């Protein structure tokens, strides 16, 4: 089986300039405190497009999707505007912007984001756990909240997709959400966040991913597989990655980095090297889907893979 050597889209990464004082989750843990994926001290530094290009230099990345990086609530549009200064070499070609859907002005904020041509989606993280160190959301049950859902409907009506970041113990609620919003395009982040690595926890994750894969309006982003597996091996990552692809198929799954967050536990080349090793078992067309086509379609990058291939196997 040939290995895909064509152009790659990275549909999930972050940039930040900490001097702006707009990323409270990074500033708050100056003692190197731990979140669900361990200490964040190593990423408490600026990460700009030049840093991304350095890390990704060997992977033939031709375009990226910037996903909101926890910009402060008072001015979420500020992140989208700031990204204009970072848009070079295909970085941040498209944007998934942050809008807290429970905010009283959520619909106006969504409309402001949608007016920007590069904004193709919204993310409002719903990952919640009883342990505050593991929670990204302020409270449980967001996906069932009527006001939150009203704002989601507004985003969908403006043609925006929704990036869905949650924990496996929230997947039953997510199943109801994606069923209730059949016209909304959802993207499950980070392999469905298999954070509980116990046998029961992984069984719940596998069952939840399998159930969610039945929803035709949902795709999966195989991103940051090391986040919840800091002592990873290629085999441990392969088990997660292959289950995602088995459930969704190569035509509804996409590889992504989640850099620099994934850099807490692996290099860019290590992550993409494992993606390439896993993809070796698929046809060239299926590999192209995982590395380029699904992201290109999902986030409306409007790129021509063949024209970017330069004669390589694609």
Automatic annotation (TrEMBL):
Residues 9-300 form the Amidohydrolase-related domain. Transmembrane segments: none annotated. InterPro entries: Amidohydro-rel, Metal_Hydrolase, Metallo-dep_Lactonases. Belongs to the metallo-dependent hydrolases superfamily. PANTHER family: AMIDOHYDROLASE (PTHR43569), BLL3371 PROTEIN (PTHR43569:SF1). This is Amidohydrolase family protein. It comes from Mesorhizobium liriopis.
């Amino acid at each position: 089986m040939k290995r895909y050597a064509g152009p790659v889209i990275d549909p999930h990464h972050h940039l930040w300039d900490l001097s702006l004082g707009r990323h409270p989750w990074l500033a708050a843990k100056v003692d190197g405190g731990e979140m669900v994926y361990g200490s964040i001290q190593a990423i408490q530094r600026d990460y700009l497009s030049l840093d991304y290009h350095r890390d990704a230099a060997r992977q033939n990345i031709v375009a990226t999707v910037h996903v909101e990086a926890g910009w402060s609530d008072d001015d979420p549009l500020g992140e989208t505007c700031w990204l204009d200064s970072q848009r070079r070499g295909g970085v941040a070609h498209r944007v998934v912007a942050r809008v807290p859907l429970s905010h009283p002005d959520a619909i106006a904020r969504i409309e402001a984001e949608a007016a920007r041509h590069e904004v193709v989606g919204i993310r409002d993280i719903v990952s919640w756990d009883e342990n505050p160190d593991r929670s990204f959301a302020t409270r449980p049950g967001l996906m069932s909240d009527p006001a939150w859902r009203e704002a989601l409907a507004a985003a969908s009506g403006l043609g925006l997709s929704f990036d869905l970041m949650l924990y496996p113990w929230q997947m039953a609620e997510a199943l109801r959400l994606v069923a209730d919003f059949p016209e909304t395009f959802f993207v499950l982040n980070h392999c469905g966040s298999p954070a509980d690595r116990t046998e029961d926890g992984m069984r719940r994750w596998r069952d939840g991913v399998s159930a969610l894969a039945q929803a035709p309006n949902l795709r999966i982003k195989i991103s940051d597989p090391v986040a919840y597996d800091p002592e990873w091996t290629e085999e441990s990552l392969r088990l997660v990655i292959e289950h995602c692809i088995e459930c969704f198929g190569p035509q509804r799954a996409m590889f992504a980095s989640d850099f620099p967050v994934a850099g807490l536990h692996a290099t860019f080349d290590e992550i993409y090297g494992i993606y390439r090793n896993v993809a070796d078992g698929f046809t060239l067309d299926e590999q192209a889907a995982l590395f380029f086509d699904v992201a290109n379609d999902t986030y409306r990058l409007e790129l021509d893979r063949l024209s970017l291939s330069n004669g390589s196997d694609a």
